[in-house]
Fold this sequence. Notes:
alpha/beta, Aminopeptidase, Alpha-Beta Plaits, 2 domains, eight-stranded mixed β-sheet, four-stranded antiparallel β-sheet, 9 helices, 16 strands, disordered C terminus
Amino acid sequence: MPTDLRLPPEEELVAFRRDLHAHPELAWQERRTTERIAERLEAAGVAVRRTEPTGLIAEVGGGSGSVGPVVVLRADIDALPLTDRAEDPWSSTVPGVAHACGHDVHTTALLGAALALAELDAREPLPGKVRLLFQPAEEVMPGGALRLMEQGALDGVVRAYALHCDPSLDVGQVGLRVGPLTGAADALEVRLRGKGGHTSRPHLTQDLTFALGHLVTGLPAALSRRLDPRAGATLVWGLVQAGATHNVIPTEGRAAGTIRILDAGAWAEAERLVQELVPAVVAPYGVSAEVLYTRGVPPVVNHPEAVGVLADAVRDRLGPDGVATTLQSLGGEDFGWYLNEVPGAMARLGTRTPGGPTYDLHQGDLRVDERAIGIGARLLADTAVQTLAIESVTNAPRGHGAPLTRP
């Protein structure tokens, strides 16, 4: 049966989301966002601890010093370096920065869940704790999850849950999948250097631009022959840069992109292979190569039991048609770091207005159906309550991390 949750009024949650959308902040700069969340939680009497340098951890249930299962709910709070092109009254007021991935929706849904859980706990104490992670820096590699984990985010935790906007699903639908949901993602930059010169005498130079062209096409091809094709590895360049004019062979150039892989085993091999292959690809042209490889995030792998709890919560609130089957994507998501340590799952929250256009994430024109906020808040809160009920019966009590101070 659905939990007797009492969410804040819908207009309050929508207003909070629009405020965040109008004031987006990039990774590790989310100071205003952190304070807005903390102020609202503290006003409701929710225990809050600000993390360094931004973000916060809050807890509901259990009381100070108690033992029992701890369930994590997580939202990411950072924005992207993109221009907001939606032209809504609440569009970004920060030039070149936008919530184009729906993190404002994630954050507001988690806030709504926190307030509902606090109100429920005041009426009927929860059989454990719900730890709420308002995490910074999801959009950079290797992600802010690792920093929060260093600060005790997973201490004593038995399950972890999150959701992510999916503009390809109608509002009222939630995409679920057992097993891998996202891919591993790494960042790669290759810097080439060589003897430049006049374009009329390439034989007297190390033709860096030509070498760069071969790198851009040759490295993805070589990787496809060295990694198992079932791993779904793909290298896509987002930046290729060399030279300043038409008749000068430059001395420096670079290419940068991402490597995305569906299989964790192949992900473990990728960096070694890239370091081996780059010099070989450019060797015929005499240039030198510097490889800057940033290991990013592992795949998000959903645990079967955690997906089952999410599915039950969706059906209870939205009916059997609320659960949608979803496919694994190559998108990177640092929630995978949490699931490397504890079982859990991520759900895909439908944000498309039925019959309306399908937008894409990481685009400046992204729009969401704001009814998804309340759906996401209820889903997170219901899932936490159901998990605590299950874990409090089937597992011995556990301790938790450092106690949080109440306002």
